[in-house]
Protein 1
Amino acid sequence: MGCWNERITKEFAKLKQKATEAQPYSGKVGSEDLDNVDMAYRVVADHIRTLSFAIADGSCPGNEGREYVLRRILRRAVRYGTEVLKAEQGFFNGLVKVVVEVMGDFFPELKQHEIKIREIIADEEASFGRTLVKGIEKFKKAIYDTGVVEVPSGVFGVSNVQMYGGFVVHIGSFEGKTGRLSVGDKVICKVNYERRKLIAPNHTCTHMLNFALREILGNHVDQKGSIVLPEKLRFDFSHGKPVKPEDLRKIETIVNEQIKSELDVFSKEARLVDAKHVNGLRAVFGEVYPDPVRVVSIGRKVEDLLANPENEEWLSISAELCGGTHISNTREAKAFALLSEEGIAKGIRRVTAVTTDYAFKAMELASSLEQEVNEASETEGSVLEQVISYICQHI
């Protein structure tokens, strides 16, 4: 199958390049494939072959057993195609004809069921497309400013900002009953700096948390999502089992040590290819980054990282591709406290944390709870039951 799979890969690459002027398939693997484009070509080619044969044999993507495996295979291919190769939604079912052209003479069942194969994949692909759009809208890493836009006819309150179709869309409403915004209007934009002041330390601590997780749990840890709010931060990552309490304490300690070290936070734009060469630099798989891209590093200047990208020292600092708002020095975060750790899907864990005065408050509550538990350990019988009930009600 390897030779045929290579032919499918090359045929798909030709179609993809012709349609979108994407870079051609070059067969790079591992560290040479910096942008994962060649890997994406191979994933899409392998998965369309697998699905075509499975459907020809009578299987179909679904919710249980091997049918669910096929659904996962299809969705993985679609994500690689749309997010890495920038293929249009609905591209995947069109590749069935490539499989038939390359392998149909050897496997006549492919030609016999070509229409059926394409229709099933098209239906599943469309369904996933709708699910994916809703999921991205709901869980997209959103670290945006809010504020107001003053226009001649009133004030437009901005409650959200999103990227859509290459444009920065400001979402909100006019304050009061009147208000109108027209092309050519001169406006004054005013950022809500009070909100930004709360968001920034949480965002910077998200970077330090990402670094600490890898330090303690291992390099298999990859970011799977995050939300940064004024009152807390939430971080999802790949890890196959619950994090041990002692490891959580180590992770929390690393972040607090970086806060106490009063490290400067640096940011600078760089060419995407140069940034990705930096040893230990973290990026979110599937995220579409601009070129040039903004690099945020903690404790070392970005210029130092770019000047000597292979330096092993960079493995001991936090460096990420990021366009969000940050504090200028880690001391501004004041403190960091983990609130919870839980599983949200197979192989995916989630931690929630707080910073600044919220962290101090969490630490005080934890200390108080520990004292109550210690006192409860000295009681027994009905009194112990009452104490336990009281503690549970106040957790």
Protein 2
Amino acid sequence: MKKSFCYSTAVSQSSCSADMSSSPSYSQASTGSPKQNGNGPASSDPEAPKLCLGSSWLCRKHEVPGWMFILCLGVVVVIFLISAICISKLPHPAECPTDWIQLSSRCYYLSDNRRAWNASEEFCNSHGASLLVIMDNTKKDLDKLNTHGDFWIGLRRDQNKWKWVDGTDYDGKVEGYQNGRQLHCAHRNEGIGALDCSTQRLFICSKTARGPLS
């Protein structure tokens, strides 16, 4: 075993210096802490890569300040939330059921079989609709539908007044008599006339388009 002390003589001191320089304990003391091995603590070498706040792929050799990462993350979250709100407020396309015709925001069903007025209204009601109520906005649709021939509409005599099935009054004139007998159900041909409610006629149903519908 090598001695850890030296005599003050010139000869012994020179040999002691050689012994101490070769000693492991002396080597560690003179060079600082031992070099890092594979399982040792992180090196203090200034050239070594620095860790970054966040994912390791974000940066390898340059440190990103924590406040900058948080700021960028906040901006991304805000943009995502704004986009989600805008998309949710976009009008969804309205749809009509199969075999119905869509014009603007309304759906129309043109029957291909004849029914009495009451049976026609019941059929329309079963599909969330009613017999056609002719208003200013539906008159243009009727021209586009290019309907010909007569068909039941949603107009009926209520006591001495003609009313649409939505409860609004009809201010126009209806020929409501046939051979002196009062008629109660309206149909549309070239104009609006009245027929016996048991008469078999084609009909048109109408309702507001709502999407999506089945």
Protein 3
Amino acid sequence: MRTKGGVMVYKGWSYGGRRRTENSLIPLLSSIPNLLVFFSFYLTIYLLAHFLIFNNWTSKLRPEAASCLISYFHGSPAVFLAGKALLSDQNRGFASTNTTFQTLVLDYSIAYFLMDLIHYLLFYPSDILFIAHHLATLFVFMTCRFVVFHGAYAVLVLLIIAEVTSFCQNTWTLACARRKDSEFADKVILCEPCRFEPCRFVLANSLTVKACRAGPVTGRLRFSDC
């Protein structure tokens, strides 16, 4: 952020009412290599799950199993990466500007949600709830990453809360798929949800309230004005 002719300017946004259009595409263009690498990573895992890892599962179950596998590779790594990105920022706060590491984590998650969204559109186009969830998540992540350049702290905190239990959720989903032919899977189904869902519900709601009360971003552009 700097001052130009009495107008505060930050990475393409002009807080005095003007926008520096010549810089508006820079964040998007600089992010394309990361997005391509991460998306290729998830696509490779997804295809391996379909045609190799779960090739002996029925055609009805393979898509869901493949989705769970890419979620395994996103969820827990995203928790650790987001945590490191938050702790490495000395100026961290719910309305702080995004750091380079934080934007990298956003790219990692954006690629995952794009891949999983394609999965749902191809195999479960009637699952409006999950499709809407992924679209809303992508809107928040991409707005934070490419438009306002603020708020990654708040987004990553919520990402941690959402994904810290994803390992349990994916394990439970896979167990549901195999409960008819596995006694162990049936036991997993009975014990998993009661452990992780209450924790996620309480933490996510409390931190969402804190994010909404964090206040405005410096200048006219408001990130959290609930």
